[in-house]
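Exam prep: given the inputs below (a chain plus lysine), describe the expected output before reading on.
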Amino acid sequence: MSVFAYRHGELHAEALPVSRLAAEVGTPFFCYSHAAIASAYDEFATAVKGLPALVCYALKANSNLAVIASLARRGAGADVVSEGELRQALAAGIPPEKIIFSGVGKTAAEMRFALETGIRQLNIESLPELRLLDQVARAVGRKAPVALRVNPDVDARTHAKISTGKAENKFGIELGLIREAYREAAGLAGIEVRGLALHIGSQLTDLEPYRAAFTRLAELTAELRRQGLAVDRLDLGGGIGIAYRGEQPPSIADYVRVVRETVAPLGTELVFEPGRRLVGNAGILVSRVLFVKPGASRDFVIIDAAMNDLLRPALYDAYHAILPVAEPASDAPVKRFDVVGPICESGDRMAEQRPLPPLQPGDLLAICQAGAYSAVMGSGYNTRLPAPEILVHGDAFDIVRARPDYQAILARDHVPGWLEPVPGPQSQAKGARGAAE
Ligand SMILES: Cc1ncc(COP(=O)(O)O)c(C=O)c1O
Ligand SMILES: N[C@@H](CCCC[NH3+])C(=O)O
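Solution:
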């Protein structure tokens, strides 16, 4: 059951009416539900019970500190792809031995930081990266625990921009080279090669690509072992989808059944890296209608959230359900609208020709499934400030990322978010004097 549901004629987030949250926080804002995050994690944890498994939440889906901390408290590890995410995981209380560092382009500085922190494993995606890590590890006097990511050349049957396991994708070491790479890794003084990793794509709603990839991984593991190489960890990546528009993604129990049938008999440690499935359904983006603009060919609803807040529709033509916060009467007339933001691009459109009940300026809309790849993909385009984020638990909520205010920016105070303080006229004048002196 969704934690975002209509009660007493309006949308609630757990026990709180969304209109009350909007009045207190201001729009647009992201609203996350603690209960939804907890129940998604628990579904995963229950399904892997009995397996030697670690669930490492992929922070890229949502790296809000409070969200990560909710998962950390339930025992999750982390899958990170940058020094920033690694620092964020540590700050949220995830112990280093539960952290995996993935990604196709780690810098030497990131490698050094990861080794000094003592994380569980770095997933390596190419021979040049392996050799650089070997050098860095020897320079800091450590042995780097490594899994080699293989590209299994499997079609994940998802959007081309988020498919990662085909030979033409940049990810992983290709099947034809992986055996040689593993042998090389096993001989490097700075590397302790522990196993293999893969991740075939995101928003998968079908189990067959997983079965194909895991079967290849099992065959490869058996082959490496026959050659006398130790393989004691398999990292199966993430990718399990959620329903945005009536898709029927598999249950975690069914997904884990495929794992039990393919790789589990090898007896290795298993790592899972779910992102979207843990947090995607746990968030909405709440926005206010600014104007309703009838047009000759289309009618527009102009809202105060934009592609800088939620990029998915513009980037992938992604569908997100949009709900009026005030529950429409069952017999309310419905018209088709393009729901658009204020940014100066025609692509700044949350929905195209979406059937909606009559709307007025000031009405609130909830854009659904905004817990994953939403706030994290935000930008400052059109010099818009980042939308605040709140976390609801029961009948209480915390502001877990505040809206910066322009006065604070101008006063050069600390600004949460990525916007740099704007130098005020005074400091500019001082700078100019300094240069002349
Ligand atoms: C290596 C890796 N692991 C895990 C994930 C998380 O994916 P998802 O959010 O689809 O579970 C990704 C992103 O697709 C990834 O690139
Ligand atoms: N950003 C993508 C998911 C990418 C997954 C990262 N490997 C999305 O919004 O669906």
